[in-house]
Amino acid sequence: MTKAQLITEDNSMERFLTVLVASLCISPLGFMSGAYVVDWMTKDAGGGSDDQMAYGYFMILAGLALGAISFFIVWYLAQRFLVADYLNYLQIADGIVLAGWLTVWLIHSAQQPQRLLFDGRWAALEVEVRTEKSLLVNDLISSAISMDYIGGANSGNFPKPEAIREEGKFVILPWATAPMFVNKWQVRVFLHNEPMLFTLDLPRNPTQSSDWSGWVAPTQYQENVIPSDVQQKLTLRYRLRLVPNNEDYH
């Protein structure tokens, strides 16, 4: 094989890979566009669970179809108009788009729930809610207050009514859970079925147990405004414990 033939083959492979990368970079945009169009068209369609599942499959099929169409359109246009005279510019565009997709992937990955894995240990999140007796309106605190972990997946919610205690004008309800995945350290507390939010200052991927926090006040959950007396009279503290697998972590 002559040197000229080798150069020609190398150039052909370079053009092929450049066009392939360009087509692959654009096809996800086609997929998302197809899925978005179906979602927009069916958002008010209603229906039961079977209908919603059908809409979901339709979104996937539309996305795949538009993604494939986008791939072949870019492949054709690049081969027809760009490769011969603008190969370097197309390669630069490929690099920019690849960098953009990498950035999107890194941001998306950072926002995914973090799985808590410890060698031979569990993560136990222990919480205590403290409220003034006046907020209970003659109800038991175990009836007036409930809570759940909404920052990720967990293994059960465990109120501890047997450990309820009083401290002056306050009543304290202990509670625990075993978080398995963490997106945000958040606990939702219900007082007489009215929700409020507590954000916990814990590392996203903890490596050790923590001490009890100070008592923190609630923040607004979605559109539910917290009355001023509740804001002042109901607080929460927490700690994270890494305990052996054979220990009762709740």
What does this structure look like?
Keywords: Membrane, Transmembrane, Transmembrane helix. This protein is an alpha+beta fold. It has 2 domains: about 5-110, no CATH class; about 115-245. It is built from 4 helices and 10 strands; from the N terminus they run H-H-E-E-H-E-E-E-E-E-E-E-H-E. The strands form 3 sheets. Strands 2, 4, 5, 6 and 10 form a 5-stranded antiparallel sheet that branches. Strands 3-8-9 form a 3-stranded antiparallel sheet. Helix 1 crosses helix 2. It is elongated and about 85 Å long. The model is unreliable at about 5 (pLDDT under 50).
Describe this structure in a few short sentences.
It is built from 4 helices and 10 strands. It has 250 residues and is of the alpha+beta class.
Helix content: 40-55%
Mean pLDDT: 84
Portion in strands: 25-35%
Q: Return the structural class.
A: alpha+beta
Overall form: elongated
Helix and strand topology:
Layout: H1 3-42, H2 49-111, E1 114-115, E2 121-132, H3 141-144, E3 145-149, E4 154-159, E5 165-167, E6 170-179, E7 181-182, E8 186-191, E9 194-199, H4 228-233, E10 234-244
Antiparallel strand pairs: 1-7, 2-6, 2-10, 3-8, 4-6, 5-6, 8-9
Helix pairs in contact: 1-2
Keywords: Membrane, Transmembrane, Transmembrane helix
Transmembrane segments: 16-37, 57-77, 89-108
